[in-house]
Design goal:
This protein has about 160 residues and is an all-alpha fold. It has seven helices and no strands.
């Protein structure tokens, strides 16, 4: 029932409720043949609930990454693991964009030390994204350039 309830919520684009229903199914039946599907749908629900605008709360993207990680760890040979891996990358890119948004905000406000910490953190945390697409490469290159520029501003140079 939890699995079909999740499907119904997902069809209605009630992604928070769908993720909860899929999660309940996996909690109750962790070894069920449908558990990989439920974990994938939970991942997809969180991803679908994450706003596209970087300025918005990206908590659903964080949950999508966690859910994808769990699916990949528990069911690595599942057909859903590869799909979840793709959603994981897209979610991490949204999180990286959020960090860049915050760093730019600090920089515009003259809070160069805070901006530098965000840029450095972005490069350290999201370095793996560089291999995926042009957008992620551009974002990481911007982070590297701005981190150095912010460092120069902080040192008076």
């Amino acid at each position: 029932a939890d699995l079909r309830t999740g499907d119904l919520y997902f069809e209605q684009e009630s992604f928070t409720e769908a993720a909860a229903a899929y999660g309940a199914f996996v909690d109750l039946f962790p070894t069920h043949a449908e558990a990989p599907y439920a974990l994938y749908q939970k991942t997809l629900s969180f991803y679908s609930d994450a706003p596209e605008l970087a300025a918005r709360d990206q908590s659903p993207a964080i949950e999508a990454v966690r859910s994808a990680d769990l699916l990949i760890k528990r069911f690595p040979s599942s057909d859903f693991a590869k799909q979840a891996s793709e959603i994981r990358v897209k979610s991490r890119l949204r999180l990286a964009e959020k960090e860049a948004y915050i760093a730019r905000f600090y920089s515009r406000r003259g809070a160069h030390e805070s901006a530098q910490k965000r840029w450095k953190g972005l490069v350290a945390e999201f370095q793996d994204l560089e291999v995926y697409n042009e957008d992620s490469r551009k974002l990481l290159e911007e982070a590297r350039r701005n981190s150095q520029a912010e460092a120069n501003l902080n040192s008076g140079g």
